[in-house]
Each structure stands twice: as structure tokens, then as C-alpha cells.
User: Fold these one by one.
Assistant:
Number 1:
Amino acid sequence: MDDARLFTKRRLDAPAGFFEVEAAGLAWLDEAARTHDGARVVRVVEVHPDRLVLPRLARVPADDAAATEFGRRLAATHAAGAPWFGCPPDGWAGDGYIGPLPLPHVRRRGSAGAQPDDRPSDVGWGPFFAAHRLLPYARQARAAGALSAAGARAVERVCERLVAGEDTVCGPAEPPARLHGDLWSGNVLWTPSGVVLVDPSAHGGHRESDLAMLALFGLPRLQTVLTAYDDAAPLADGWRDRVGLHQLHPLLVHAVLFDGGYGAQAEAVARRYA
């Protein structure tokens, strides 16, 4: 492919596996696109320890037709499923990244690369979300001074309720979904052929987490996307009441990375569910 038609993501100080796990996540999501008519993702041209080479994608304004198709396809991606909550994408045995931060995965004991202290896979969504998506980032945000002591305690109380599996917090039980994992509006590209997703932090999780991320930073045509998604794969009762809960993870990530009021926002959200 002509170099002018390529886009290279480069990080000379990339930690081990930084681009390789992204490529594995794209391949895992692409498998859902090919076999389940799931959401399209950017194709990997080359992957190296310090860079990822991708096609350069043309951009067009969002429209209702593309939003409707994306909602339907995203539901199909989620329905393609994952083996367990917190699993890494196929072909990857270690942890991942969300932005520049490490993202813990839950590795099945006895799998390739497993260590004696590997995190067990036999947990439900609530304990997984508490232990691997909320507490690590709340502790980092608190250590950085971006989250108050009261905010950290509020997050801990939410985690206690998640671990207990309280229906009023967790909602109805659902099987693990195949998540993009960092589905904010900047990773949803509107192209002439429809929506194409980039920059995943792919793992097995709760499908409401991807939808909550879409809402966090203002996806164009969001209501059209959600309507099409719900038509294709009806969402559980009360899902709108849980949007903030699922947004707590990216808010804590942003508090660690940027501070800028994200810690206070995370605290306010945590208090709602504590």
C-alpha cells in the first residue's frame, strides 16, 4: 500500500506488548465483524514493538443511516461473546492497556504464560469490575491527589456492593460480551463505508460498559445508535440507571491521567451507587 495511504501510530518508549495487544484486540473484534456481522474495525497492516501501521481512513459527517447500522453491528459484536469476564483478546495472554495505562486482564489458570498468582476466571461481572476496573484506578487517582479520601471511600463502597452482587447495582446477570473497551467518540470513525472502530482495549466485559463509554464524551447520533442496538439486542431493564456506574471506570482512568476535575466527577458518580 502507498505510504500516503497509511497511518503509523508510533511510541518509541512503548512498554512491552503495547502495540501487540492492540493488534490482537483488533483481530478479535474483526473476527466478530466477519463471522457475526459485527462492527467494522480498522485493519492492521503491520505491528511492531514501537509502532502500529494502519490504513488512513477518510472521514465523513455522521448520519442516521450509518448510526443505525453501527448500533446493529455493535450489538452483534457484543453477542459474539467472550469466554469470561476480564479475558484478554484471543492470541494474547497478558494484560492490556487503556490509553497509556496498564489494563488488568483476568487470565485462566494453566493457560500459556500463566503465573501461580494469576487471577482466577471464575468470577461474575460485579467482582471483576470492582477488582480490575475500579479499585486499581481509584488507588492510583488517590495516590496522585486526583481523588479525595472521601471519593476513594465512595468507590470502595460501590465495590463492596458489586462484589456482593447486589441486583440494584449490578442489574440482571448477563454473559460476557466482546467489548471494544475504550469506545469513546474519538475511537468511532465515520467513513464513507460506515463506522470503523479504532484503538480498542478489547476484553470480555459487560456490554453496557461500551454503551456507557459512547455516552460519556458525546457520540454524534447517539440516540439513533442506541435505538438500533436495543432493537437488535434488547437491553435489560434499568440499564439507563446503570450508565453512571459503567462510566466510573473511564472517569477514574481520566482522573489518573489528567486530573482536571475528573476525580471530583468520579466521586459524585460513586456516591450515587454507594
Number 2:
Amino acid sequence: MGALNENELATVVMDVAFEIHRKLGPGLLESAYRAVLLHELRRRGLAVEAEVPIPLVWDGVYVDVGYRADLVVEGKLIVELKSTEHVAPVHKKKLLTYLRIADCRLGLLINFGSELLKNGISRVVNQLEE
């Protein structure tokens, strides 16, 4: 697919997420959406990792506290998934923290539990140059 920047990757991920939501609808477990999204993104030739550890480094020491990103696309885009009626503000803050710790610039928070997926997608930016 060639080297895509963060915004281009986000567009691909959102297009695939819309397709999945249109076919499956809301109400499945987060793990089901993660597995299908992972499959579809890889099928499109993207390098995608699931449940990626996000280590915290403090004073030169790696502190393993169990942070894990749902998906990391091409090493550049962190995708956090939810399947709930409403996303809490803390979920966006958590994603921003992941972006900072992992030194990534863009993340997507996708809530497959939303009736309309367009209302369930949030872009979270960490110093991204547009």
C-alpha cells in the first residue's frame, strides 16, 4: 500500500471501521470488532499489531504496568476500541497518554457501540503536523 502518513492511515482505518459497523452493527464484544478490524487492515496490506505493550519509562527504567494499545497500525497510529453505549472523557485522556508514552502523533478512539459510528469516532492528536 506504500508508506502512508498518520492521516492517510486514519482514513483507511475509519473506512474499514464503517464497513464493519455497517455489516455487523453495534452490540458485539470489543474483542470481536478488534479481531475483524485487525484481519481487514492486514488484508489491505497494512502492518498491524494487536494488544501492543506500551511501556512507561521513568528515570531510565522501564516500568511494566500493563498498558496495552488495542491496535497499532504501521507503527504510527494507535487505535483504541470500545463497544459501549457512551465513551467517557477518560478514554480520550488514556489514548492521549498512550500517544505521548509511545511517541506517536495520532490516535483513533472508535466506539463500535454507537448507533451511528460517525458519532463514535474521535481523533486524538499529540503534536501532529497537519
Number 3:
Amino acid sequence: MIVVTETCPPPTPGSVASGLVLWLDGSDANADGTSPTDGNPVLIWKDRSIAGNDATLHVGQNAPVFVTNQINGKSVLRFSRVADNLGSVLKTDVDIRPTITEDVTVFTVYKHASIGDNMAPWGSDDGNWDRFFISAFSSTVDGVASFGPAPPYYTPVVGSGVPGSIRLLTAVYDGKVLAGSNSGPVDGSSIYFNG
């Protein structure tokens, strides 16, 4: 599940009451209570929020696969990484770059099947102040999450890529850009892992 909110405090995903701009739920990929067939590719992951920001297959990439009974009896979308520039990639019209959306909170619930090099559940790259989460970085069980304009630009997320473990990552970004895409508030963002 990936939930993105704008200017909303970091509650649990189930109690987000306002500011919801995207809600991708692997257990309800059609966003209507029906399910794709187990093992079938999903070309459109429907947004459960009222915003209608569906995630669609990125051109030239592989579709994720719908798999039943994976996390606490719930279905999921299984993404795979093939190479640095090929894998299961979906995109939405939600733009989380700080020059477009200053304040945003992203909740991510996921489980790794295996470890691969630089496996990223979500991200946006503006060339300077990126917003991303790489749950398994450099073929390790540790990940990184971006958090702002001061080097090193990201923080380690220890144990975020342990295979078989259910994880929750919350990223809260304060990204008021002051003078250029890589200039914003120091210590304005927070990353919470499993808490």
C-alpha cells in the first residue's frame, strides 16, 4: 500500500481524513472491491482516493503481478527489478517534487520477496533534491530514504529490505523551496521506519 497526502500530519494510513491525493492498495488494485485474477499482470493500479490519480504502466517496463494471500491474508502487487533501467514500474500524475508539492507525507507498507540491487518502492527525481525510498540499497538488507538538500541527501534505513518482513515507512517532507530546486529548509523532513 502506498498512501500520499499533502499538508497532512502523519497519522496511520487508516485514519487519514483529509488531504489524501493518492491511495494505492495492493489488496484492492481495482479500487472497487473486486480483484484481478491471481498471477495476472496489472497495467492500471486504481487510486482509492477520490482524486483519481491511477498508477499506470510506464512505457517500456514490465507490469507488476497480482498475487493473493501475501501480507496478513491480503493480496499484493508483486514488482520485479530486471536491471538498472528495467522492471515493474508504474507512474502517476502526482508530482511530489518540492518545487511542485512543498509538503507531502508518504506511507508505504511492503514486503520483500528477495534482495536485489537498489529496489525502490517509490520515488521522484528532480535532479537535485530528490524524494525517494530505496528499500534494498546496493544489494543489502539496508535501504536509504531522501530527506533534504544538505549532503548526504539521504538517510540510512537499517533492515528495510529484509526478505519476508512486513515493513512500514513514513516519509514526511517539508520542502518549501527558497531559491532553486536544491535549496530548502534544513532538517525539515522526517523518516519514520516501523513506527
